[in-house]
Amino acid sequence: MRKFLITLMLMFFTINTVFASKIPQQMQSYIEKTFPKTDFRFDGLIILPDNTMYLPLFPAETTEQDDVLIKKTFPENKTLSDKPEIIVFNNNYVLLKVIKDKSNQSTVFVPKTIPDEIRNGLLPQDMLVPRGLVIPEVYKGIIGNLNISLAKDPGLRVSVPQSKNPSSPNVVVPIPELKNKTFYIATGYSKNIQVVNSENKSPAYALTQNYVPKNIKGYQNKFLLVTSFGSDSLSVISLADEAVIKEILFTSEPDEILIDNEKELAYVSCPEESSIFIVNLETMTLSKQIKINGMCERLTLSNDGTKIFYADKKTNEIWAIELDNNYLLKDIGRFPNVSRIAYDNQKLYIISRTKNHIAIIDYPTNGLIAELKITPKPVDLIAYENNLFVLGAEENNIMVINTLTDEITDSLFLNTNGFSTNITPINSTSLAIISDSKASVYCVLDMKKKQIVKTSAIEVPIRAIVVTDKIKK
């Protein structure tokens, strides 16, 4: 029954039914003329570049207009650039500004005479209301079925034990690119996502979860997407609110997550279902199910977003999905004990953890170009600007391969005395975090310079990590 319901949901998604609330594009364009880079969040909330927030009220009946204009404001005779407390448009939409009252409580303004456009309006019913917002009694009619958060609602935040060793100060000096950053870390054993400031080695606090997270990915410095052991859903966490704002249900336990920031899409694997699902990140809804061969793992998205590669954990077969070619499946061949796959310059690079080698495949012809012996126990790799960085766990090093010549050019030593596990790129930089399962450290790799530029202490093991700018709560 459950699978039938989700299949039915996917049918609705494929015919472009959108359940998330969005204000009309004409209004968005009107607001963006005054405030470029305004965030029209998928649940309806409007956030101006300076973090001023407006709650939209959807009218019971819209009035079609050739041009969107402001009909009235409170205070009166204000322009949009003045950011008034209430804006009523000529199409009957209303914006209510989130303000602070005398006790520093988040609320909205109430004029002496309440316009009919407010009395008849309704807040988006899938909106995450800003934490602590109190709606005045006279506005209760606009709430509908929304569950308004209480002022003392702590969200997901929980405290964590702090180190009591005075001889070990909780201080890290990060490289300039990591100053004022926040690390969100899944440890692999705790239900909590650890939140670590880049200037410290111990967590400041944690975000509690119902299950142990196995994969986390960040999106737009605003959201975390989380899959967990034992859960059939993908959780969407708003970092500003520190709350789960969406649970996306799957037919079986989702696993790996790939993010395409350009296309605003996430690809989520469900190995037991032999499927990869596409999530529309603009609306945070499922939009398509791609049926595949086998049980997928080791997912890789090409840099141009046109192909996904994966290994079948049962057969060791490597497959390509041509996303821009009606999701055509292409059989690459069988390779033993695949640790990771990378794609660069129309070539596939496949590492084997036990064979200590890398196979190089010409994608157009499927022919074997070369097979190179590499660092022992290769566990991860990443392609960046015609270079391939291969992480070896046994000797704690990174081998660099030029993807134009397919020659090994460098070997970078990780002075950690541990067991390296993952390379995680930091968005919009040339940097990557090298995590370790044994040593209480992480390394920072500059892929442009081909150098380890920093080794820093950290008090929690890293299964998966997301690095973001510090979020205004």
Explain the overall architecture:
The protein is mainly β and 473 residues long. It has a domain at 2-142. Helices cover 6% and strands 42% of the residues. It has three helices and 37 strands. The strands form nine sheets. A six-stranded antiparallel β-sheet has the order 1-2-3-6-5-4, with no helix packed on it. A hairpin with a 4-residue loop joins strand 17 (257-260) and strand 18 (265-270).
The strand line-up of the biggest sheet is 1-2-3-6-5-4
Measured by DSSP, the beta-strand proportion falls in 35-45%
* Individual helix count: 3
SS-derived structural category:
mainly beta
Helix content: under 10%
- C-alpha Rg, in Å? 25 Å
Q: How would you concisely characterize the structure shown here?
A:
With 473 residues, this protein is mainly beta. It has three helices and 37 strands. The longest helix has 13 residues.
Defining key terms:
single chain, 473 residues, mainly beta, six-stranded antiparallel sheet, five-stranded antiparallel sheet, 37 strands, 6% helix, globular
How would the blueprint of this fold be written?
Blueprint: H1 2-14, H2 25-34, E1 39-40, E2 46-47, E3 53-57, E4 70-74, E5 86-89, E6 94-97, E7 99-100, E8 106-107, H3 116-119, E9 157-158, E10 181-186, E11 193-197, E12 205-207, E13 213-219, E14 223-228, E15 233-238, E16 243-249, E17 257-260, E18 265-270, E19 275-280, E20 285-291, E21 296-301, E22 307-312, E23 317-322, E24 328-334, E25 338-344, E26 347-352, E27 357-362, E28 367-373, E29 378-384, E30 387-392, E31 397-402, E32 407-413, E33 420-425, E34 431-436, E35 441-446, E36 451-457, E37 464-469
Antiparallel strand pairs: 1-2, 2-3, 3-6, 4-5, 5-6, 7-8, 9-12, 10-11, 10-37, 11-12, 13-14, 14-15, 15-16, 17-18, 18-19, 19-20, 21-22, 22-23, 23-24, 25-26, 26-27, 27-28, 29-30, 30-31, 31-32, 33-34, 34-35, 35-36
